[in-house]
Specification:
The protein is of the alpha+beta class and 543 residues long. 27% of the residues lie in helices and 27% in strands. The strands form six sheets. Strands 1, 2, 8, 9, 10, 11, 19 and 20 form an eight-stranded mixed sheet that branches. The chain has a seven-stranded mixed sheet with strand order 6-5-14-15-16-13-17, with helices on both faces. Helix 1 packs parallel to helix 8 and helix 2 crosses helix 3. The protein is globular.
Length: 543
């Protein structure tokens, strides 16, 4: 159910006839993206900004409707900043750092997500997914105006795919009839139900949880709740077995009620029944408008492989998790961040095709980590036996009084980026005394650089970060450009650069990947070591 005043269905790319529909033979494109949601648009933007022609096919004409993803983590904001919309997201979003956990009518404890000082972006914002999609499409338009070869074709539904050795053939349907095109590479970003996955006879592996949650998005202009994440286990107002409350932009608050498994969805979605739950929680004297409602169940599953020849899956089409911890859209954007530079190098002839196998390796690793954390959250929130229920409530009781029990409370471990420990692209880590948080495989943490920030100078290409020692300057290795960023910890009065990148070391050299993950690090610059690490990071020297 959707209130028209809350509709965010921006019609951003209406159907228009394309020359491909009149071509005598199917036109071949380097990359075709199936799905115009945030993962598909971000993929097109990433590739298009590299100068790679890409076509997005969407069976709609713009941004979808409803709450869907609402929590965007700092890592997503950092990636979005490279695409040009990080600041717009923060400007529109609701920044929050404090979360509170309740059991019945008692506050068990509270937690603060605010990271240490010296980060450009906050730990989390709340922002309805349609706004994120619109900001991405606006960046596509800006990039197109500067010559980026990106197309978005609305009302172009993919009806069939045929996999060949060196391309994929696609059959499309439009309001004016069918036509065919071909793609060197097809990227599946068509969501959890993924028609592409179905066309290829592929499926997920993992768990389906027998629990249902009712989403109710309401508008309250005089809400008394602070801008915090509140989670109730067995709430006193009896509107569900658990309840989650989040504030969103536009005076909208999203409430998730756990309502059980064997429920009559049609009955539960009647407005009177939804209002009865909300009134029990807020009180009948609270004035609000009901603007969105839905019921969801969830799964913690993924495809066995994300790459199938010339077809690659990303986002919800590749993996699904429960909403607890905000790991869906956030992990999907990290998929894009990982895939974009690798496919770009392959298409530009700067890396072998086998580099794309590392996308499967690294993002399956990340999906497993997300599924593990999401499953643990779900099992804690929805205990499956009397014994697990007793244990859960005992932990909550202890956590109210004793700090040692609080880490055991799991109302949704919030999304953090994955570290690619011990995976195939990793180079050497010989920085004596280097911090564990910036070990090889880890995402780079931000740090202040005077009035600027470190991550604004990293990403999009390989970069040699040189701290308090000599480096070679910008160079090319096997035709691949490597930029150099030379810094001194002595110039950082906050100490963040030293703490995050030097630790006990006096100096350091880092090789940073285009997705801001550490590829290798050393005590000093060595030309042969750098070349070997770069070849490994680009798949030229398979292990």
């Amino acid at each position: 159910m959707l209130d028209d005043r809350y509709s965010l269905a921006f019609r951003l790319y209406p159907y228009a006839r394309h020359a491909d529909q009149d071509a005598p033979a199917p036109v071949r494109h380097p990359v075709v993206v199936m799905g115009g949601g945030p993962i598909g648009i971000a993929t097109a933007l990433d590739l298009g900004l590299q100068g790679i022609p890409v076509v997005v096919l969407d069976d709609h004409e713009g941004v979808g409707q409803g709450s869907r993803a609402i929590c965007f983590a700092k890592r997503t904001l950092e990636i979005a900043d490279r695409y040009g919309c990080g600041e717009a997201m923060v400007g529109k979003g609701v920044v929050w750092n404090l979360g509170k956990v309740f059991h019945d009518d008692r506050k068990v404890f509270e937690f603060n997500l605010l990271p240490e000082a010296g980060h450009r972006f906050p730990a989390f914002i709340n922002l309805q997914q349609p706004y994120f999609e619109r900001f991405l499409v606006e960046q596509v338009r800006a990039a197109q105006a500067k010559g980026a070869p990106i197309e978005i074709r609305g009302k172009n539904r993919v009806e069939a795919v045929e996999l060949q050795d060196d391309h994929v053939a696609l059959s499309l349907m439009t309001p004016e009839g069918p036509y065919r095109i071909e793609a060197d590479w097809l990227i599946g970003c068509d969501g959890a139900s993924s028609p592409l996955r179905g066309m290829m006879g592929l499926d997920f592996e993992g768990r389906v949880f027998e629990a249902s949650f009712l989403i109710a998005a309401i508008r309250m202009t005089n809400a008394s709740f602070p801008t915090e994440r509140w989670f109730w286990f067995e709430p006193w107002f009896k509107s569900g077995a658990s309840t989650l409350l989040h504030r969103q932009p536009d005076d909208v608050w999203r409430i998730d009620f756990q309502i059980g498994w064997d429920v009559d969805r049609k009955e539960e979605l009647k407005e009177d029944n939804i209002r009865a739950r909300i009134d029990a929680m807020l009180g009948r004297d609270v004035d609000y408008d009901l603007v969105w409602s839905s019921i969801y169940t969830f799964q913690c599953r993924r495809m066995k492989r994300f790459r199938h020849g010339r077809v690659i899956f990303a986002g919800d089409s590749a993996h699904q998790v429960s909403p607890f911890g905000a790991r869906g859209a956030n992990s999907g954007i990290q998929d894009v961040d990982n895939l974009g530079w690798k496919l770009g190098l392959v298409l530009q002839g700067l890396a072998p095709e086998r580099l794309l196998d590392s996308y499967d390796e690294e993002r399956c690793h990340a999906a497993d980590e997300n599924i593990l954390n999401s499953t643990r959250s779900t099992d804690f929130i929805t205990p499956k036996s009397k014994v697990s229920h007793l244990f859960r409530n005992a932990v909550l009781d202890l956590a109210e009084h004793y700090a040692f029990a609080r880490p055991l409370v799991n109302s949704g471990r919030l999304s953090v980026p994955c570290t690619y420990d011990a995976l195939s692209l990793n180079g050497p880590d010989t920085l004596s005394g280097g911090p564990a948080r910036t070990r090889v495989g880890s995402p780079c943490p931000d740090a202040p650089l005077g009035d600027d920030y470190l991550l604004r100078h990293l990403g999009g290409q390989f970069t040699l970060l040189v701290i308090d020692c000599d480096g070679p300057g910008d160079l090319q290795i096997d035709g691949l450009p490597v930029a150099q960023l030379s810094l001194s910890a002595q110039d950082d009065r906050t100490g963040a650069l030293r703490d995050r990148y030097l630790g006990a070391a006096a100096q350091a050299v880092y090789l940073i990947r285009p997705d801001q993950h550490v590829a290798a690090r050393w005590d000093s610059y060595d030309a042969r070591a750098l070349r070997a690490a770069l070849r490994k990071a680009t798949g030229k020297d398979p292990q």
